Amino acid sequence: MIMNLLQNIVHSNYYYQPSWVMIIIVLSLMLLGYLYSAFHSRFITLLKAVFMLRFSVQASREERSLSHPVSLLLSLNFVLIAGLFILQLFSSGAIFSSKIEFSLLSFFIITMIMLCIYLVKILFLRVFAFIIDKQEAIAEYNFTIFLVNQFLGVILIPAVIFIAYGPRALSGTVVFLGALFFIAALILRIGKGVVGVLNRGEATLFYLILYLCTLEILPLLIGIKLFEKLA
Questions:
Q1: Which of 2-6, 53-57, 135-139 has the lowest mean pLDDT?
Q2: Domain membership flag for residue 90
Q3: How many Cβ atoms sit within 10 Å of the Cβ of residue 10?
Q4: What pLDDT band is residue 4 in, cutting at 50, 70 and 90?
Q5: What pLDDT, in 10s, does the model give residues 108-145?
């Protein structure tokens, strides 16, 4: 019986991941569980704010909106889950081939690159707001970046779990769906940003083009180029 069990494990169609993958997933689920129980109202408001403009404006105008424990922990969850998914994306070969090894070191490097990209983007946003003298509008857009990313970190959890421990035959499909989530999040972020500019009556053609090119397209191209060098 023991030999049959061992044989079933050897011929299993499921992935067996290193222990640090399970630690990251469990930590992520613990963070969400804690936020749901300790900050239920704020947690639900932020999730609604992703798609409902009224809740988004309300949340962005609250004091310490980005330094609130809910926002900080959801951002931490995004970095962990998005970093793990990007590593799964590169190492799976489902969309393109890569030489990146699936290891804790690779995960650490990817998360550090993500942090650097967003830190640079935040600094750039503040300089850009100072130059065009639109601090309030850019601060609201800055909140939108974090909000959409935090939501992305939540919805990627099932994909990350399935890729790690689901059937191999379906993992490529889930990787592709996760990549679509990233694209949808980018489109949603741009859409919410444009709507915010239009609502403030600041949507001149010049500012709108400058807004899209400098705050969305340029960072995206830099990120793609950086990941291409890693691959």
A1: 2-6
A2: yes
A3: 7
A4: very low
A5: 988 988 888 788 777 877 777 777 677 776 777 777 78
In a domain, 126, yes or no: yes
**114, 133, 92, 134: which is closest to 231 by C-alpha?**
92
The enclosing H or E element of 27 equals helix 19-38
User: Which is it for the CA torsion 142, 114, 21, 165, positive or negative?
Assistant: positive
Report pLDDT for 82: 94
Counting the structural domains of the chain, the total is 1
| Cα–chain center distance at 49 | 16
Q: Does residue 157 fall inside a structural domain?
A: yes
| Per-residue H/E/C for 107-136 | HHHHHHHHHHHHHHHHHHHHHHHHHHCCHH
- The tokens describing 219, both together, are 């960072």
Domain assignment present for residue 7? The answer is: no
Q: What angle do CA 204, 134, 195 make, to 5 degrees?
A: 55
Closest-CA residue to 91 (of 8, 175, 10, 150): 175
Give the range of the structural domain holding residue 196, as residue numbers without chain letter.
17-230
